[in-house]
User: Fold these one by one.
Assistant:
Number 1:
Amino acid sequence: MNKELEHSFVTNLEQNQNIVHKVCRIYTSNQDAHNDLFQEITIQLWKAYPKFRGDAKFSTWMYRVALNTAITLYRKSKRSIKTSDLDTMNFKIKAEEYDDEVEQQLKLMYTAVKQLNDIEKALVFLYLEDKSYREIADTMGISEVNARVKMNRVKTKLKKILNP
Amino acid sequence: MDELELLKQDWKKQNEGLPKLSYNEIYQMILKKSSSMVKWIFIISLLEFALWIFLDIALRLNGFAGEEVLEEANIKSITVILSVLYYSIIVFFIVRFYLNYKKIQTTDSAKVLMKNILKTRKTVKYYVWFNIGFFMVTLVSLITYLAFFTTFYQQQGDLEAVPIKVIVISAILSGLVFVGFIALFYRLIYGILTRRLKRNYTELEKLEV
């Protein structure tokens, strides 16, 4: 029985692991920290899995647990994050796909997102993942109106970081 | 905002660049132990419960309570009542702590999750303050009682020269130093552990005003 559960969980997570990697990318700045967080999210997902009823999509359920782990449960490792890591971030923007100006703009955007606080990062992450405001509100535990208001504030904040 | 839309498009394209873990790598991960904050709060809390209970039992076993003194001062029955009260309050705290801890679910919304963690932590905080308070009140009232209503201190030869007021005041002062020390200790332990959680919770709270 337990083996079966393990198998279905690992298979599910293997197929949907991108979601967790993306959460790690928003919240960490180097590969070690990325792996650490991925590990903790996996453990938390596994702990919560017996209660996963399948009435929601596995991926939808994952967003919540993964973000909760990143925002709330995860204890950052002692390794200090060097600012130089910010430049050599995991985000690899493919040069051949964009012209220089766009590429530069994207780089700045990613750096700006990194400067947001934990909650703002969560909002941006869900926004980038094309989640509705209803879903964003549900995941964060705030009202839909406030999710919208906050998202607008985050946009303004990003603008300010980009054009000081 | 065009930049964010631009980012969104790029964000969707990044899938190929993401690491790809194998079935076995993920399987190995679920065998590992969590190092989450909740786990640390749980462990530290259990140590705290154990510490105070241990201290109480150790003091009793070593006869710190001074059976003869209590007999002589006619307050033996009061201390029995106090002990029963003390232990029932501790049981109450442990049950509350356990119920709060059980409520922590990663599948709740971020805000509810944070609220439940802070609640669990608060139970332990109250437990510690209850202990300190109980300890202080007992200490001060016992010394005051012995000093003013019995001849206990007068009988101690070497204390003869020391005025009663000095004994009471120095007992209160050393008690306060002890409380200050414990308070600092807790600020450090939990301060480090929950700083980020508190900040994020406040951030969400602020939104709802």
Number 2:
Amino acid sequence: MATRKTLEAPAPKRPNVSKDELLQYYRDMLLIRRFEEKAGQLYGMGLIGGFCHLYIGQEAVVVGLEAAAKEGDKRITSYRDHGHMLACGMDPKGVMAELTGREGGLSKGKGGSMHMFSKEKHFYGGHGIVGAQVPLGAGLAFADRYFGNDNVTFTYFGDGAANQGQVYETFNMAALWKLPVVFVIENNQYAMGTSQKRSTSTPDIYTRGGAFGIPGEIVDGMDVLAVKAASEKAVAHCRAGDGPYILEVKTYRYRGHSMSDPAKYRSREEVQKMRDERDAIENVRELLLSGGHATDDDLKSIDREIKAVVNEAAEFAKTSPEPGVDELWTDITA
Amino acid sequence: MATEVLMPALSPTMEEGTLAKWLVKEGDEVTSGQIIAEIETDKATMEFEAVDEGTVGKLLVAEGASGVKVNTPIMVLVEEGESADDLPAPKADPAPEAPSETPAQAPASAPAQAAAPLEVTSKASADWPEGTEMKTMSVREALREAMAEEMRTDETVFLMGEEVGEYQGAYKVSQGLLDEFGAKRVLDTPITEHGFTGIGVGAAFGGLRPIVEFMTFNFAMQAIDQIINSAAKTLYMSGGQMGCPIVFRGANGAAARVGAQHSQDYAAWYAQIPGMRVVMPYSAADAKGLLKTAIRDPNPVIFLENEILYGRSFEVPVLDDFTIPFGKARIWREGTDLTLVSFGIGMAHTLAAADKLAEEGISAEVIDLRTLRPLDYDTVLASVMKTNRCVTVEEGWPVASIGNHLSAVIMERAFDYLDAPVINCTGKDVPMPYAANLEKLALITSDEVVAAAKRVCYR
């Protein structure tokens, strides 16, 4: 059913990819990383409160998945959601201002880091309850099937959420009703502080889909081109009306579970090794340079552009006023 | 330009910390993402990463320093050819402004506003014009008609749940709907409440208007996270972008001899949730008119039915498009000596009690709340200000009941009108027993309502 790839031995064959595509992935991933670094900094300054879960290290997952999306496709994810919002084109200013709880935030400051939405970009959250987004994502796909269009819903969840019962209730119904949903398991190997080995009976989580007749495969989540290729395959399966597809994307988060996680459950060397050897952004950077698609100066100028975008977002997030006190009582019922 | 690196807050509650260890020294090159220090917070020792690139110009706080306030400059990063002295006068980013002290005003309808009103006008009024043709119909038929009518006019409305289709409904409420609307719109689900409720909520986010039937609301406890966290809160959390038009309906409360796990009344539970509509009809006309309103409402609606009432018949108006708005109580009988307030099956006991009281010369005004959120406070208050006495009646448990809430609102807003304390008649504070005699004792009875009514009338 599945083609096996592992993290240690990424597929050597590169899909045919254009210079423009490579540059786009570089930009998109770099935007997420710089944005998240800035968010971490603003958190440190007390400008962002509560929980703040950074996506640093996992950028290739969402950028690769989005590369296969078309207008109308939907996406939904957990609380580690900043990267998903940037990748589907939501305004970095609005995301950052939501993190600081300001009027200019995407939820007018009432949602926070874990709860943001965009009807325009078909981004359905941002959900704080581990695993709850999985049946919701299948429901979005259900609506598209009901309307008879060929849209697909990308439903992201982590290796931790993969042990929630509602995931398997959803697998059952998604397979039964042939719902056009790509289940993306972002396996970053740690459910907060509990490693996959200590929490999960199956070494490869996607194999659990087999019990429901859902095909799936492992994808190298540190290689944006591998993610894109897998995404195209999964999306084609869903659009053809063949039901759901599972992509278990093996990835790694460099930072703690949230800003207040000291991450003592793994060694500094383990993190550093991933950064040094498998970093997804460095990977594309090398492809661009070695393929002669860009010079060091070209990339530096992209870096500067991204930094400017992120700084502008941070400035907006600091200066946008807090929501008016009347907002306490709005948007409770429609 | 030289950049100051500030002491970071590394937990939601951290105000100061200890700079346990520097991992860089002056003159070192620093790249973004590099760990530069270890900082002890109130909870743990955290690694602190650089965001900006540059050369360490100066370490401003010594290793081991404790009590370093968040946002204190701890290091200066310089670019090539700069020195730390190039830094302009220290200036930390301003902390966010303290939240405004202005107390937010609750909307006028919310019960929290305690000022005693001088005038309250009852909202209760006739639900259909006088002289309207009526027909006798069971609650079950009324619910079915409401769904069928709404499904005929709006293609996005569909019904999902256990045994709603081919089985024709566990309680036959959906009988015939599969034949008329087909399997696409009358969807049999597996027994998997948590999952299918989430799928229903997702479908509502995606532009449909699902009616999710729970065989009974007892089973909805498996799905209550999706009902509350996903359906009820998303409009608020999305700043008004993402509404959830969905109806959760099914049998609620005790049936007969089904024991503790199948006999709970959830009225007070759901009525507590902002973002939710909660409806609990008694009559067939209310069941029909309110379910049609529920299906059209852009918000999540909890629609609490009752197995015993399904088979009871009432007069229902014959009208092309008959709806009843939320937040409007119904006065079933007018009276002068006391006010009886109830809803759902509690109304059966309450109306029976009112008959008995009348025989003893006590004139009870009987109010059916019909919707618990929004709740028609004004009709209750206007009545209590007239009768000066009140008894509430419900099947659910006594602690944090709807009656408790009404008592508090009456005390806050009509204290001076009360001639006796409000009494809450409720189910007993026990899990529902199976034995017939014990079950009878656990449930509210009309005799208990009569006794409470006499107590508030000092008779």
